[in-house]
Amino acid sequence: MTKKKYVIVGAGGRALYMFAKPMATELQDYVDFRGVFDRNQTRARLLSEECGLVPVYADFHQMLDEVEPDVVVVASTDDTHHHYIIESLEAGCDVISEKPMTIDEEKTRAILEAERKSGKEVTVTFNLRFAPYFAKVKELILTGAIGDVYHIQLEWFLDRDHGADYFRRWHSEMKNSGGLLVHKSTHHFDIINWWVDSRPKQLQAFGARHVYGDQGQPKGERCMTCEYAATCEFYKDITKDPFMKKYYAEAEYEDGYWRDRCVFDERVDIYDTMSVNLQYENGVFLNYSLVAYSPYEGWKATINGSKGRLEVGNVYRSADMSAVDASTITYHKLDGSSDLIEVSSQIGGHGGGDEKLRKAIFAGGIEDPLGQQADSLAGAESCLIGATANRSIVEGKLLQVPDLQSLRR
Description:
Blueprint lengths: L3 E6 L3 H12 L6 E7 L3 H10 L5 E2 L2 H8 L3 E4 L6 H10 L3 E4 L7 H14 L3 E3 L7 H11 L6 E11 L2 H4 L8 H4 L2 H4 L1 H12 L3 E9 L33 H8 L2 H4 L17 E8 L4 E10 L2 E9 L2 E9 L10 E7 L4 E6 L9 H11 L10 E2 H20 L3 E2 L9
Parallel strand pairs: 1-2, 1-4, 2-3, 4-5, 5-6, 7-10
Antiparallel strand pairs: 6-15, 7-11, 8-9, 8-16, 9-10, 11-12, 12-13, 13-14
Helix pairs in contact: 4-5, 5-14, 6-10, 10-14
């Protein structure tokens, strides 16, 4: 078997654990791992050390020119995805992009146009599609268990540790992440898009900051130097976590990036409370909500159809969804009876989805009857729901979700 040459852009936690370490270990039969680039060279060197001393590059274009990779893995900050994706496509490389593919409509258009012109492919890593629980719901819908789907209600809730963490990091500014309706909800919107097999048509959204951001609380610049550390609910000592201490606290001298910025900082401009009402082209309605300050973490949904109803959801004990309570699906039939469907609870990142996704993308040759692998259009449509929702919040009105399908032809 001829291995493909891979390089990776980004050296943060997601880049290391989701891609780089597996590329250097479990995926060695398929991957010739040739290089890493990150604007913070300290983090790039640390990642290299954990991955068999893969070459570290100080310049992205130099890495492309010298390695001539077959595939570029993009796992940098969200606002930079489009740069690296487009330049990789123009260099003749396929791209694997961490979600979200990008953060707004303009950048989405640019990626799809570059992909079409290059003839190369962009794959987006929507790992929840591969988690057995979500896949079972797709299977039930496909086999007609509840008939035609008419309405879905999805509630997602982040706890006060995981949720707060987005407000300490670069994610806390719209210009970097598109807010949680793009960065986080792209997971959720993609799952619904996949379940209902239709394009999002129009939506109206609402958003607010109730807990984080400048709420008038006493605050410092960052947790590490804060005089209110002893009394703040959201205080976090990143030096107690070996990974964050090494990759962030000890690397910040290079780029000035603080991993523990105050969650009440005035620069926080993303929402912590969000609601979206969406209509699909096939008539399905979605009522969606996300909060980032729940006492516990998880999600729940109801899926109503012409022949019945599914009640689904999980409560998680870890931010990456690797520790989950028992997984069951309640299937209500029109005659009033119901079945309880047990789904294997697999330990592993994102409900067991990470490992399955990596195998499908890097090893290839795997049958895909449920359509779990996601292309650039799937990445675009989930991103555009969030980006359009952000516009709807600001403009206070119903908006059409842009249709960019023609850009891929």
